Amino acid sequence: MKSRTKRADKRLYLPFLLYALMLAYVIYGLFKTQLLEREQHLTLLDHLLGRSIFEKGLRGSIYSIDGVKLAWSERVPVLSLKFLDEKTEGKIKKILAEEQIAVLKNTGEVQVAWEQAFLLRNEGFETKLREIRRSYGFVYHLVGNVNIDGDGISGLELVYNDILKGRAGLIYEIKSPGGRYRQSVIQTQPEDGLDLQTTIHFGLQKFISELLMTESTPSVAIVSEVKTGNILAMVSFPFPDFDMNGIDNVTWKKVLNDPLKPLLNRAISSTYPPGSIFKVVPAIAQMLYGNPAHVVQCNGIFQYRDSRGRITGRYKDWYLSGHGLVNLKKALRVSCNVYFYQVGLELGIDRMLRVAKALKLGEKTGVNLPGEVSGTLPDPEWKLKNIGERWYPGDTILYSIGQGFISLTPLQMLTLYNTIANRGVRTKPKLVVNEEIKEEPINLGLSDDAWETIIDGLTEVTTIPGDPANAGTASKAFKGFPIRVAGKTGTAQVGKHTTHAWFVGFAPAESPKYSVLVLVENGGSGGEVAAPLARKIFDYMLREGLFTENADGRQNKKEENK
């Protein structure tokens, strides 16, 4: 009986013992969790209730010399939805436009206005901020654009990417168990990228862009400071007519496949036969190695005779009636082909090549833009290697007027005329303020008087009126312009009935400050097409006060834009 009672008592205490053990285990577990493993569990809790966010500083802005933003970044609210059901669409239809909803359906996200972002948050939708890069289509060839990650992929955006891009900062956010974020801890402060100051004059760039659009044909116009090499404007038409940052794939492919190639910077990435604007090269060679006082009778056609006296080639002048007696200055003024045919043969290809190479033609100018090409400055060795033929006298004849196999970039030709304006000092073209001015004296051995002779001949191109036999080829275009311009027209043959129109010049002729180049592809005559466009550019620069004084010394006053 007693044994049964003892067994019953044991069964009675057993549950209490189990409860005591369980309680002890719980207490131990709490002790272990709260004290022994506290740091470990806090770390796990923070991982579950927190998140790390990398916030990138804004990309730096690119400015023009006249203080206008050419490219800049801003943060805008973006709505992202992976799935859009009928109920959700019904809510956002009250806030977003149909176009925005269409973009959201196609891409999964859409940019919204700040007011829309506020209304969306009230409806329970979360928006996030995203950096958007802005620019203008007509500065694309200079500024370039960025990719989806915000890194530069062309133009100055690419060249100065490391300077412009913002530095990322780390923000750690902790949320409550209910899901709301209650605390943000900035661990690393984001830094905005540095700004970039260019030499580009926004007003001039915009004016030239609109001017070339009126021609509706591929063309180039460049304006630079003669002494510094600063490029004030560089327009390659056509150019994209919209901001190239953030475009969709369909638009990108459309622009890429455009037969007019609006993404091509023709100023540095395309080469052309320079035609008559190249005649300054044999003119300089004539001053160095020939007879500067040489006079030629131009009857409109030059007949080349071989060593036996036989006529083996006839080469026409652009003015078939002929220019009469022509010296070096007049040859530049009227662009007499017959004069340069004969001078070229007398000098020979080697001497003309020596001058052209000394002037750095056929080499990249070194402008700080991607995509520059060197062009072709042919010689007998080049022709044998690439054409498989030896060099003929006819090649020398064509070379002397900038035709044949020679092909150079517009920026190379502008740099050549800057060198002439500087009396033999070459300056590298540049696009960024404070970039080192690289001057390189061209050791040709040409005297000051010889440089003056060349510049006087170029000045007569724009200042001497008269009949076609004697007038400067750009005299009509520059009639009445108050500043003396030294320049040269060119009409470069590219097909049986097709010519490129050129003009390049600098002003004031006596003390050069600015240079202007215009090229119109398949445009016709340089004097009739390119020179008038250059005159309009000079007119704009004069109106805006870019020239400090007129030829007679009177000060120009910059007009106030109100």
Can you describe this structure in just a few lines?
The protein has helices spanning 2-36, 38-49, 86-92, 98-107, 114-122, 140-143, 155-159, 161-164, 202-213, 249-256, 266-269, 280-289, 328-334, 337-347, 349-358, 380-386, 393-399, 410-421, 448-463, 526-543, and strands at residues 50-56, 62-63, 69-80, 109-111, 127-135, 168-175, 181-186, 196-197, 219-225, 231-237, 296-298, 301-305, 311-316, 324-326, 425-427, 439-441, 486-493, 499-507, 514-520. It has 562 residues and is α+β, with helices and mostly antiparallel strands. α12 crosses α14 (337-347), α12 packs across α15 and α13 (328-334) packs parallel to α19.
Q: Which overall shape is indicated by the principal axes computed on the Cα atoms?
A: elongated
CATH class of the largest domain: Alpha Beta
CATH architecture of the largest domain: 3-Layer(aba) Sandwich
The DSSP helix count reads: 20
**CATH H-level superfamily title of the largest domain:** DD-peptidase/beta-lactamase superfamily
Radius of gyration: 36 Å
User: Beta-sheet strand percentage?
Assistant: 15-25%
CATH topology of the largest domain: Beta-lactamase
* Overall mean pLDDT: 88
**How many discrete domains?**
2
**Low-confidence stretches at least 5 residues in length (pLDDT < 50)?**
549-562
In terms of structural class, how would the helical and strand content be classed? alpha+beta
Helix content: 25-40%
Topology, number of strands: 19
Largest sheet: 5 strands, mixed
Measure the end-to-end span: 118 Å
